[in-house]
Amino acid sequence: MTAPTLPRPTVYAIDGVIPVIDPTAFVHPSAVLIGDVVVGPGCYVGPCASLRGDFGRIVLQRGSNVQDNCTLHAFPGHDAIVEEDGHVGHGAVLHGCIVRRNALVGMNVVVMDGAEIGEESIVAAMAFVKAGFVVPPRTLVAGLPAKVMRELRPDEVAWKSEGTEEYRRLARRSLATMVACAPLEAEEPGRGRVDAGSSQPLHKVKGG
């Protein structure tokens, strides 16, 4: 008997416009994609993410990730774009903005219309990036509203890139091994761990 497979992602057309998901991308079945959404090669879209292309276009470029409980939306005629290797943490909200190549948007960040998160920059968790604000490349921004704190060090950019590569690998792992299943009733002896790589929190990396 073959193992059960995951259900297909929750996808809706509107006004005849159908979402696009590259075959090498992984979109969790509980995520919702509506209308003008384009998910590129090697992307990862996590559980309960909402990509609503019912007003503006939503684009995820190659190798980017949008994690669980994220929301992407835009005003009519505007786009929400995550460029190549963009990294959007749990619970973030992106509205009509651009996340440039290899940038990181932290957990529970809100990025408003017309804002631009610069290439290889990091937006700290819980920040609010106001409409039209442009984050310079390779900088750290934080706060309510977000302000530029300093330039990023090379090791911090490398840490970000390593984490994003693990999400690219997660897309491949999920396509290859994730299946719907019933839970065990008890923990088995010698229980293994998932093959999650070696990425560590930034505070651990800084502390050696």
From TrEMBL:
Protein name listed in UniProt: Transferase hexapeptide repeat family protein
Record carries keyword Plastid: no
SUPFAM superfamilies in UniProt: Trimeric LpxA-like enzymes
Cited Gene3D superfamilies: Hexapeptide repeat proteins
Region: Disordered, residue numbers: 187-208
Keyword Zinc annotated: no
Entry keyword set: Transferase
GO MF annotation terms: transferase activity
Alphabetical list of Pfam families matching this protein: Hexapep (PF00132)
Superkingdom of origin organism: Bacteria
InterPro entries linked to this entry: Hexapep, Transf_Hexapept/Carb_Anhydrase, Trimer_LpxA-like_sf
